[in-house]
Amino acid sequence: xxxxxxxxxxxxxxxxxxxxxxxxxxxxxxxxxxxxxxxxxxxxxxxxxxxxxxxxxxxxxxxxxxxxxxxxxxxxxxxxxxxxxxxxxxxxxxxxxxxxxxxxxxxxxxxxxxxxxxxxxxxxxxxxxxxxxxxxxxxxxxxxxxxxxxxxxxxxxxxxxxxxxxxxxxxxxxxxxxxxxxxxxxxxxxxxxxxxxxxxxxxxxxxxxxxxxxxxxxxxxxxxxxxxxxxxxxxxxxxxxxxxxxxxxxxxxxxxxxxxxxxxxxxxxxxxxxxxxxxxxxxxxxxxxxxxxxxxxxxxxxxxxxxxxxxxxxxxxxxxxxxxxxxxxxxxxxxxxxxxxxxxxxxxxxxxxxxx
Length: 356
What we know:
By secondary structure, the chain is an alpha/beta fold. Helices cover 45% and strands 10% of the residues. The chain folds into 2 domains: 25-189, P-loop containing nucleotide triphosphate hydrolases (Rossmann fold, 3-Layer(aba) Sandwich), CATH 3.40.50; 196-347, Helicase, Ruva Protein, domain 3, CATH 1.10.8.60. It contains 15 helices and 9 strands. The strands form 3 sheets. A 5-stranded parallel sheet has the order 2-3-6-1-7. A two-stranded antiparallel ribbon has the order 4-5. A two-stranded parallel sheet has the order 8-9. Strand 4 (140-142) and strand 5 (149-151) form a beta hairpin. Helix 8 packs across helix 10, helix 13 (303-322) packs across helix 14 (327-334) and helix 14 crosses helix 15. The longest helix is centred in the C-terminal third of the chain and has 20 residues, at 303-322. The radius of gyration is 24 Å and the shape is globular. It starts with 24 loop residues before the first helix and ends in a 9-residue tail after the last helix.
């Protein structure tokens, strides 16, 4: 890949970018494209499944660009209703609607001289798409409830986990806005198509979550790593991140073993039925008995189920504490939905805490 405008002999570097993990051919291409587009002011459209790291690429484009010293503002367009999102993006004046007790600066204005990252752009309504198109074309807008025009110098990076051309065909996304956003598209590969990067990612997450949780899980069993590499990862890097953190919290020693992985990743087999794993389970039980987390000798037929239940209880309690009692955040980090978490709280006799 070559630089445009008189630099044809100087190749763009495909070297890894700080904060991004991966050395596969697919990621090297992403790195090269990221470096190439960063120098421009063109709009960028990041495409890929949920959990592939679109926000990390958006940040990298911003930080490598001449705007790197300016603000980087992220907006999750799928998290707010139309009225709230309009106010969030463009701001409002006092009295514009019920509850607007003061003027508010919008995200586009806050991102002046920097970059705004519009995540889940596919979830915006036609009304907002018209306003976004105007900002992209004219670099101007009005706050909600105001007539004064505000001009901004803001680069737009958008992301979608759906094929926007399909959304255009269904008439749920404006074709003119699609072409304004799609000046430079970057497709982020799913984790299953870059399996060579999984060992690097596991090592990175081990280091990070050991420090976060004050643990020392520094080894990974070959069978466990093989299982992680084989798994199809529908939740991509975000799912792998959650799995590694959960294993670190649950590990009784300094090794991430096959028995610590969820059944779906182990290949649909329970830990007790995996060949050669009996010794590890017995060792886990013995360690937990010694720590006072289990109350029966390792030979007890029901020990495994009770140990798993106790470890699950401790894991949920610790994760809730780490998340300040916010169930939604704890459920996301545990890799389960909030309803499942609530059932587990009742099952284990834990207080429900914050329901937000």
